[in-house]
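Work package 3, deliverable 3.1, input record:
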Amino acid sequence: MLKVHRDICGYCGCCVSVCPEGALELIDAYLCIEKSCTSCGICAKVCPLGALEVVNEK
Amino acid sequence: MKNKYDVLVIGGGPAGALAAKTAVDKGLSACIVEKRPAIGAPVRCAEGIGKEALQEFIDPNPRWISAEMTGAGIVAPDGFLMKLESNLAGNKVGYILDRKIFDRELVWRAAEAGADVAVKTRASSPIIENGYVIGAKVESCGNVMNVTADVVIAADGVESKFSRWCGIDTTVPVREIMSSVQYVLTDIDIDPHSTVFFLGNDVAPEGYLWIFPKGERSANVGIGISGKKSGEGHRAKDYLDRFVKKTFPQGKLIEHIAGGVSVCRPLDCTVGDGLIITGDAARVVDPLTGGGIYNSMYTGRLAAEVAVESIGSGEVSKKALMVYDRTWRASKMGKAIERNYHIKEYLIRLPDTKLNEIIHSVSKINLKEFTTMSLIKEIICINPKLMIELGALAASIR
């Protein structure tokens, strides 16, 4: 699943623009992840700050 | 905020502000909804704009101009600096804005002209009836209300969701998002009237690093790299930190922002039934420079002009609104986007050695006009074999 490191996130919306599922939404300074997220990791790759991480579900 | 407007504008940046002002100036009612609590912040922009481009919309005012530019420099991958100067020495060629104030000025003007403005108010879904976008559900501080409109103008920026909710695919390809970070640094030694662009695979892969002065000893120092080249340990921030540590070790960081800039082609279609998409949301950023302020103001104004006409004639179908799409594509801006897209695609494939060669060969250019295009023309003039490499594109540049 996709994890947001909120202490790193710059709430810039770069990730939102590349999400093929439209699963991310930036609500002011808070990045929301919707259920349609497939953990593809595209957002984690492009994040300028490294705030997103795909972690294995436990 | 009322329940019904002629035009509902999603987003309070330059595109949204121009759209709302144009609509009310022409006698319609309009409302801007902005999800953030303040217009203009966070900035997320390098803030540069050409002198003429700005003046097409608003007279420059020192209240929101941080610095005036008289020249530019391009630093080759090997560190060689090429200086670009205007034919007229000391002539202003562009400005670095203070977007926090500039954006407010634009929204104030819309508000003064009669537009409603709601901040901390988010359009959370479109209202669609018989395939037409007829408004939006808006949420503000826990209150939810439906706002209907004859035309909705989506001006919701790079992280645009509204048009996607209306069924339009706005996804930016990974290789065509510029993953970006910018610091405002102060107490640094710079040329306060010249922008500087750094190129090279080690500096900013498939992008560039910039210094845009904000005053005598302050500047926006930022970077954009291709999303394709971004990853753990080599993100935009890693490149920028390395540069700043080396170049401005004593600089004081007073602002830290991130962002995404699309350098893809614009959306295939920028209208729908009852819907017009503008600015970064329409992906009309200049793919070569990443500049988007002018393009946003231009498309915002045009969107409202077309909305006014269409509402007046009682026909707001996609077909009627297509005038907007066709007009901007045929405009100087639309043509520049298409041409600069090809130039960008060519340049990002050049190895550093080739870039060095080109930049050395044109070490000092006196530009007749201070535009990206006149620079490209000069480069080709001095390197005629580039014409062959550019192929079909060359014809459009001559």
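The interface with chain A takes residues 35-37, 42, 44, 120, 122, 157-161, 164, 170-174, 177, 179-181, 227, 230-232, 235-237, 256-260, 262 of chain B (CB under 8 Å).
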